[in-house]
Design a protein that fits this description.
With 250 residues, the chain is an alpha/beta fold. The protein has 11 helices and 11 strands. Strand 1 and strand 2 form a beta hairpin.
Amino acid sequence: MEARIKELLVRLAEGEIEAGEAFEALRDLPFEDLGFAKVDHHRPLRTSAPETIFCPGKGLAEIGEIAESLAKTGTSFMATRANQAAFDLVLGLVPKARYHPRARIITVGQGTLPKRGEVLVLTGGTSDIPVAEEAAIAADMLGAKVERIYDVGVAGVHRLLSFRSRLEAANVIIAIAGMDGALPSVVGGLVSCPIIAVPTSIGYGASFGGLAALLTMMNSCAPGIAVVNIDNGFGAGTIAARINALKGED
């Protein structure tokens, strides 16, 4: 891989290829093979999104080795569903790492994109905040300006309505709720922007670990709502940031 990079740089310096051609070649170069993992250093070039380590199922040593591999490139990255032990290990290898305990995310760097637009993150209740923070931090790392309004569920819908002007100002809204999962439908009747609904596993027995909220959101009669998987704040934040970036190009 290093030989290929040097070759492209020489050809670029000598005027044999244009900068755009070099970029296209570089972004498809091979990954780094660690044996147990194949680290994609070129993901930011292709997608403008930082590489992300999904921590569950990985040993601490594996998380640390992947983080160290990513850190040496100087690019931003995240590690999701990380516990304190994982952060302590990563911090020893990557001193610039930060831990967001409620979101369970480790971040290195703040993304390369300037903050723009607005992604608004809503929760039905306070218990949904961990998923909301995962979504908010993911969107922030992808260059979105993120605002938060928490605990505005349908059990007291007047709380949500008091923020009407902020709802209308958003480019994208992430609506996160457990229990009956009704929040996205209510929001869908108030705004014209895209809404990303996130069901959470919060609720009593008949919520079936978030399945009830998921089905409610998927069967919403309000238009303009997309639904991600249960507790998938990271996925919602990523999608929201990409939609927000497109709005910023209008």
